[in-house]
């Protein structure tokens, strides 16, 4: 079908570009082990650089978190960029011993009325002041060709919504204070419609994208499947900006596709 079967691809092989030098201290050995764990490598030497081994901005965050847990030392992300090898980072730690770690983040009981973030409060105020509109809608339209299993798509949508609470949250008000209420996943339906005779598909998509959310009673995600024929569909996902931003739509679509093909 022209798609790449990622599961069938061979695992990338690690090729060393610098001579291996064994860790010379317990601290270097621990750091080498953390580098290897975070980057999923079989072996890391003292002169191996974190980013030369394939590290990036996301994995460096994991490395810093692991160091905090294993060594009880707070290492700024900048330090890993400035001292990227095992030996250099060990020297950095030797020079910064005694730096207090931040208290671990602990899960707190969820209040009955969840407060809004600053950004959510701003959008909630505009929603109340201006009334429901499409101004803060973020739409994504996907053209689907071929046989479509609507039941599987509906189940995939429920799976994605179950994993992202922001997509199934409504925003109420009590005693003049706005709050969030998280609903069950099944509260976000897949709306299935047929394209009206003579109506261009683009017009139907634009109408779906212009939906007016009522945030107090309606979840900030709307999913509409427009059937042009048995093998031609358009899936229109519309998210209110109070729940996501434009950068969230591609990961959302990928999550939905993964759940559909699972």
TrEMBL record:
GO biological process: amino acid activation for nonribosomal peptide biosynthetic process; lipid biosynthetic process; monocarboxylic acid biosynthetic process; secondary metabolite biosynthetic process
Matches recorded under InterPro entries: ACP-like_sf (IPR036736), CAT-like_dom_sf (IPR023213), Condensation_dom (IPR001242), PKS_PP-bd (IPR020806), PP-bd_ACP (IPR009081), Ppantetheine_attach_site (IPR006162)
Superkingdom of source: Bacteria
Occurrences of domain Carrier (ranges): 22-97
Cofactor(s) required, per the database record: pantetheine 4'-phosphate
GO CC, one annotated term: cytosol
Keywords: Phosphopantetheine, Phosphoprotein
Spans annotated as Disordered: 1-22
Keyword Membrane in annotation: no
Pfam families: Condensation (PF00668), PP-binding (PF00550)
Keyword field contains Iron-sulfur: no
One term of GO molecular function: catalytic activity
Protein name: Carrier domain-containing protein
Organism expressing this protein natively: Mycobacterium simiae (Mycobacterium habana)
Lineage of the organism: Bacteria, Bacillati, Actinomycetota, Actinomycetes, Mycobacteriales
């Amino acid at each position: 079908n022209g798609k790449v079967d990622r599961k069938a691809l061979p695992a990338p092989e690690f090729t060393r570009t610098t001579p291996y030098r064994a860790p010379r201290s317990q601290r270097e050995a621990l750091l080498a082990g953390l580098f290897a764990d975070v980057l999923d490598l079989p072996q890391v030497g003292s002169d191996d650089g974190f980013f030369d081994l394939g590290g990036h901005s996301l994995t460096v965050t994991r490395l810093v978190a692991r160091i905090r847990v294993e060594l009880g030392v707070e290492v700024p992300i900048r330090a890993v960029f400035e001292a990227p090898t095992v030996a250099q980072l060990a020297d950095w730690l030797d020079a910064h011993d005694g730096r207090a770690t931040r208290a671990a983040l602990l899960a707190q009981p969820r209040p009955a009325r969840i407060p809004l973030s600053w950004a959510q409060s701003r959008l909630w105020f505009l929603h109340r002041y201006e009334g429901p509109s499409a101004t803060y809608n973020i739409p994504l339209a996907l053209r689907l060709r071929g046989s479509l299993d609507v039941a599987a798509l509906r189940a995939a949508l429920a799976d994605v919504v179950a994993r992202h609470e922001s997509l199934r949250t409504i925003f109420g008000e009590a005693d003049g204070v706005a709050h969030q209420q998280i609903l069950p996943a099944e509260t976000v339906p897949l709306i299935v419609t047929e394209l009206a005779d003579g109506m261009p598909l683009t017009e139907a998509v634009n109408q779906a994208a212009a939906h007016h959310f009522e945030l107090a009673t309606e979840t900030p995600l709307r999913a509409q499947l427009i059937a042009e024929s048995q093998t031609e569909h358009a899936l229109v996902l519309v998210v209110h900006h109070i729940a996501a931003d434009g950068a969230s739509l591609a990961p959302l679509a990928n999550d939905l596709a993964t759940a559909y093909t699972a």
